[in-house]
């Protein structure tokens, strides 16, 4: 596990952080054995910044991309959780565990001699597209107001409703029975360890997750991620080489509109403005036509990001559509 958080300050980082008024998303490679909270605690201490969080929890033994939210970046967590994710993983066939991974208790073992490459590839093919997943007992999903993992630690098992997740791409990269290394691109809320167990069940031998690395979260790639120890040793934030995304850059997947004059003041106070005043500046980076109730970035004409809003929103009892402000970055 990660060492205890100390009170040591790291002058280079603190100086850089204070000088640059960092607000955005830092791409960090979470080490094996650390919880996501461990990483946040250590960086909060090192940076000398109180507002530090993360988007998308990784299990302690998983490594890879952990988006660390800094300053006003903590305001955008809910908007980043929808990013698709890419993982590299290893499935161990022939064993089922209580945690669905290699760090749990083995519940059942089955021989794998009858397995063939063709059977395994056919099983993987059934998990492409929209699938139903039952969240694992060892997860932070809440049932009756309590996280499932707390019930699991007491030896309890409760009924959990299945949810729809999307497997965009599932590719076997190395097959050496009983191990299968694979790559998966999936929607938010997908449990890769549950995917491993479900594939093992289809093959009637059981299975669990042996190894996991998150390679990408939205536009953030592991090959640009910074090591935690490098940050703690005093890496200058002026030399991040693409590992830090400002607020506007992190949210660039959303369309944008521009405001000026009195409308700027209204936005900064969280007040709605007429959609007609911004409609002509509407720009979608994906080239999609404008629809209703879009999440949009709200910027000044000089490009400064002011906040996030929705528009056009047609409010009951009012004769015009408005841009409704949800989050302000003032």
Question: In words, what does this structure look like?
Answer:
This protein has nine helices and 20 strands. It is α+β, with helices and mostly antiparallel strands and about 325 residues long. It folds into three domains: about 10-80 and about 220-245, 2-Layer Sandwich (Pseudouridine synthase); about 85-215, 2-Layer Sandwich (Pseudouridine synthase), CATH 3.30.2350; about 255-330, Roll (Archaeosine Trna-guanine Transglycosylase, Chain: A, domain 4), CATH 2.30.130. The strands form four sheets. Strands 1, 2, 3, 4, 7, 10, 11, 12, 13, 14 and 15 form an eleven-stranded mixed beta sheet that branches. The protein has a five-stranded mixed beta sheet with strand order 16-18-19-20-17. The protein is globular and about 70 Å long.
CATH superfamily grouping of the largest domain: Pseudouridine synthase
CATH topology of the largest domain: Pseudouridine synthase
E-strand count: 20
What general outline do the C-alpha atoms trace? globular
Mean pLDDT: 87
């Amino acid at each position: 596990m990660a060492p205890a958080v100390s009170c040591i300050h790291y002058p280079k980082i603190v100086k850089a952080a204070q000088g640059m008024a960092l607000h955005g998303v830092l791409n960090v490679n979470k080490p094996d054995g650390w919880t996501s909270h461990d990483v946040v605690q250590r960086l909060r201490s090192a940076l000398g910044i109180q507002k530090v969080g993360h988007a998308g929890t990784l299990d302690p033994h998983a490594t890879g991309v952990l988006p660390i939210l800094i300053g006003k970046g903590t305001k955008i967590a809910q908007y980043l959780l929808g990013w698709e994710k890419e993982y590299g993983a290893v499935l161990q066939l022939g064993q089922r565990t209580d945690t669905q991974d290699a760090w749990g208790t083995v519940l059942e073992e089955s021989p794998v001699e009858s397995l063939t490459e063709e059977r395994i590839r056919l099983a993987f093919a059934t998990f492409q597209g929209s699938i139903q997943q039952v969240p694992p007992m060892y997860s932070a999903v809440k049932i009756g107001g309590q996280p499932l993992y707390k019930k699991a630690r007491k030896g309890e098992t409760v009924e959990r409703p299945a949810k729809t997740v999307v497997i965009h791409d599932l590719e076997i990269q190395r097959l050496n029975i009983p191990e299968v290394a694979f790559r998966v691109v999936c929607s938010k809320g997908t449990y890769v360890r549950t995917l491993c167990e479900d594939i093992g069940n289809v093959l009637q031998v059981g299975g669990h997750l042996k190894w996991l690395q998150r390679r990408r979260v939205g536009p953030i790639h592991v090959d640009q991620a910074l090591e935690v120890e490098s940050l703690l040793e005093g890496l200058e934030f002026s030399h991040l080489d693409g590992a830090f995304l400002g607020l506007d850059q992190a949210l660039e997947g959303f369309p944008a509109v521009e405001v000026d004059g009195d409308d700027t003041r209204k936005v900064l106070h969280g007040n709605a403005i007429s959609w007609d005043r911004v409609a002509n500046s509407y720009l979608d980076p994906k080239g999609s036509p404008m629809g209703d109730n879009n999440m949009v970035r709200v910027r000044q004409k000089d490009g400064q990001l002011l906040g996030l809003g929705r528009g056009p929103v047609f409010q009951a009892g009012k004769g015009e559509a408005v841009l409704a402000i949800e989050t302000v970055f003032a």
